[in-house]
Design a protein that fits this description.
By secondary structure, the chain is α+β, with helices and mostly antiparallel strands. 45% of the residues lie in helices and 9% in strands. The longest helix has 23 residues.
Length: 667
């Protein structure tokens, strides 16, 4: 709440104080919270005076207020967001007009919208859906997106595409396969097309002429051999850990986790680690796509697709493939789609709190009932993973790993506890709307024991997410510019129980990138055995000055950073030495003029090669030179220096271009 001297307050006093404390309201939940605090100011202040931060007590207390039922929002209908055959047809018709005018970009967008709004019956049936997929496949052919076009054709058949039109799609499929040099499959598809002709609504002479044309095409392919059969199932080669840590399998065996009374759990190098070496690969157990990218990126893997698949149950969510669609439907999506209309309208500023909800919705209630004893308030263990028996394995997918992350519950003030409880109540009401609690659901606005238990988990996970969530990003670029000019933007967030064991440094030892929702960490400088392996929680020293970095670290993460960059107050990049002549004598490691000139020449020559290779977009070759550049620089100059910053940033971009999520947008 707020600090006050006079306990006899009116609504306007409380509203003014909340505006000062929380800022302007954004979204209906912020407004509702202000209404609750204004309407029940005396009761909230009395609770604050008792300084009771127990989560279940707060949830139980606040659940009695009518504002925490959220009825006007949860019961509100949003027809414009519903599946609608008429709207799907209108969008498809608009797409047809755009296609006729050769505006393929607009046609693709409109057909995709038609796919999203088409009524959907399991398993993927729907007249409008079939037509939208079929029409979109034609645009994808124009764009030479062969695999996506094939996917849409197959989906159209699965959705019930009219049998009298099968020949059109089968002929299109065969021609796509010819373009892909898969001649054997092309012949089979042409033959299937011939077999479908009796059902086609064609005049007899046209049917016979088409049959003759198709037969000739089959004959022309008889002597052709598939030129790239391996491409049928070709996938990008993701980097893998060559030797995982047996106890912490998301880490390389080159890294281990220790525990210190003042540092908590932290990571150390067990051997020398080379620049660019992969040290962590983590597939997060919980991830949530931001509202701004929902309906654009895949809700399940966060990848962008030119031809996304729809949610079977709502219009706000899309998927990149049937695999992601099936995984989501078997997990979180069935529950969440029942309150998707209001989920993104609530104005929640802490986007990472959605992770707490997703951690619940992706499991059935029985899962939490079965592990209830292990997740009691007394069982939270901040040393989890380092104090267990020798053969214990710390798995990211284990809910215990997630639950035992640090949340610093005792360090939050009452105002924050009340605020968290209010948002958790909204999540609980959403779960009630979806019938998540089954027979354990309370018949009135008060919460039953199981609902309080789940509410406590949600609040705890909100705290965990605040301390531990990482952003999931994608590299974005417009037009045909070099990827080095791209910017990494956040598309979602995730909880990674292993990666968060790495302590923070404003000059981190690793660089993170994302492939889908997974995080890959590479050493951004050479490390010696025994060195701490650190991550960066916020902004690095070269981007943000210490005076701006320190307060958020203390406020949000509850610690004061003692890394070298903070101890020595390293300046941001623009104020670092820019050339060799700018380096102070005590920062040079070599005093002999001849050796000094030789090292400078190596750095300049290798730097020029890297720059040239990057301009040629030969990122692999450029990355192969970074160790040589860094070693020569390290032999000559004590950091910090702009050369170190430039090397780290450009190497990181090369890594992201080679492996990470990226999208090139048209101007």
């Amino acid at each position: 709440m707020m600090e006050v001297c006079d306990r006899d307050l009116d609504k306007f006093d409380v509203a003014d104080m909340l505006n000062d404390e929380l800022g302007d309201a954004s979204g209906f939940l912020e407004i509702s919270y202000r209404e609750l605090c204004s309407n029940h100011a005396q009761e909230m202040i009395e609770l604050q005076d008792r300084d009771d931060s127990d989560t279940e007590t707060l949830l139980n207390f606040m659940s009695r207020f009518p504002e925490t039922q959220f009825l006007q929002y949860l019961n509100a209908e949003a027809p414009v967001l519903r599946k609608n055959a008429t709207r799907a047809q209108q969008l498809r018709d608009q797409g047809n007009k755009a296609y006729e005018k050769a505006n393929n970009t607009m046609a693709l967008h409109l057909y995709t919208q038609s796919v999203r709004f088409s009524p959907y019956q399991q398993p993927g049936l729907g007249v409008e859906l079939a037509l939208a997929y079929a029409n979109r496949s034609a645009v994808l052919v124009q764009a030479k997106e062969w695999r996506l076009a094939l996917q849409d054709i197959d989906l159209s058949f699965s959705a019930g595409y009219s049998s009298d039109l099968h020949y059109k799609l089968l002929e299109r499929k065969a021609k796509i396969l010819m373009e892909m040099k898969d001649f054997e499959s092309a012949k089979n598809s042409f033959q299937d097309c011939i077999s479908s002709l009796p059902s086609a609504k064609l005049e007899e002479d046209k049917r016979e002429n088409l049959k003759l044309t198709l037969t000739n095409l089959i004959n022309s392919l008889q002597d052709k051999k598939d030129q790239s059969p391996s491409d049928k199932s070709k996938k990008s080669a993701f980097p893998n850990l060559s030797s995982p840590n047996p106890k912490f399998p998301a880490l390389s065996s080159s890294v281990d986790i220790k525990f210190g009374s003042s540092t908590g759990r932290f990571a150390v190098a067990t051997r020398d680690i080379a620049l660019g070496e992969l040290v962590c690969v983590e597939h997060p157990p919980v991830a949530f796509l931001h509202e701004e990218t929902s309906g654009i990126n895949c809700s399940n893997c966060f990848r962008l697709s030119l031809a996304p698949l729809p949610s079977p149950t709502c219009t706000q969510t899309v998927f990149c493939s049937t695999i992601c669609q099936d995984q989501a439907m078997a997990s979180y999506h069935v529950v969440e789609s029942k309150f998707m209309d209001v989920l993104f309208q609530n104005g929640l500023k802490k986007k990472e709190w959605f992770l707490a909800l997703r951690a619940i919705t992706q499991k059935p209630l029985q899962f939490f009932l079965d592990i209830r004893e292990r997740l009691s308030k007394d069982q939270h263990n901040i040393n989890f993973g380092v104090t267990e028996e020798k053969d214990f394995v710390y798995n990211s997918s284990d809910y215990n790993s997630l639950y035992n992350l640090v949340g610093h519950h005792e360090q939050w003030d009452f105002q924050s506890h009340a605020y968290k409880a209010f948002f958790a109540l909204f999540f609980i009401r959403c779960l009630q709307k979806s019938k998540f609690f089954l027979q354990h659901q309370s018949p009135n606005q008060s919460l039953g024991p199981v609902e309080l238990y789940i509410g406590r988990l949600i609040v705890h996970l909100m705290e965990v997410a605040t301390m531990n969530a990482h952003e999931i990003g994608q590299l974005e670029l417009s037009g045909s510019d070099n990827w080095l000019l791209g910017n990494t933007t956040s598309v979602g967030c995730a909880l990674e129980p292993t990666l968060v064991l790495l302590n923070h440094s404003c000059d981190p030892a690793v660089y993170r990138l994302n492939i889908g929702t997974s995080t890959y960490c590479f050493a951004c400088r050479p490390l010696s055995a025994g060195d701490e392996v650190t991550n960066c929680y916020t902004y690095s020293y070269d981007v943000t000055p210490k005076i701006e970095r320190a307060p958020p670290l203390l406020t949000k993460y509850k610690f004061q950073c003692m890394c070298v960059a903070c101890k020595e107050n390293w300046p941001v990049s623009s104020f670092l030495p820019k050339a060799f002549n700018d380096v102070e004598p005590n920062k040079l490691k070599i005093s002999d003029p001849s050796s000094l000139q030789q090292k400078m020449a190596i750095i300049q020559q290798v730097g020029a090669k890297i720059h040239r290779l990057q301009q040629e977009e030969d990122y692999d070759s450029a990355m192969g030179l970074y160790s040589q550049f860094y070693n020569a620089l390290h032999d000559l100059i004590v950091p910090p220096h702009q050369f170190y910053v430039i090397a780290r940033r450009s190497y990181a971009t090369c890594l992201w271009v080679k492996h990470g999520n990226k999208v090139r947008r048209k101007n």
